[in-house]
Amino acid sequence: MFPRLANLLNSRQLIFAARRFENQQSSQTGELKIRSILEKSFPKAKVIEVVDISGGCGAMYDITVEAPELKGLSIVKQHRMVNEALKEEIKDMHGLRINTSVPT
């Protein structure tokens, strides 16, 4: 009935879809970069998980590290090790949730 309006809606839908895809791609890139850094810092780690919880913009991550390198350290010192490994990346972040443990 209104072809111009239909075309405009389709254009907007395409723009929003492209933005969602772009955010998803940058989110995965950030996750992979952080994971790679943590794998180098904790080479014996049994588990390293990195999840972008910012909605795709890379501003906040949930990080889990289970590594024998953390044995005998307090939770605060374990988290400091993760922070130290990611000190350059943290500069561009809004927040970070860190979960650490030692394999059993």
Automatic annotation (TrEMBL):
GO terms for cellular component: mitochondrial matrix. It comes from the Eukaryota. Pfam families: BolA (PF01722). PANTHER family: BOLA-LIKE PROTEIN 3 (PTHR46188). Belongs to the BolA/IbaG family. This is BolA-like protein 3. The lineage of its organism: Eukaryota, Metazoa, Ecdysozoa, Arthropoda, Hexapoda.
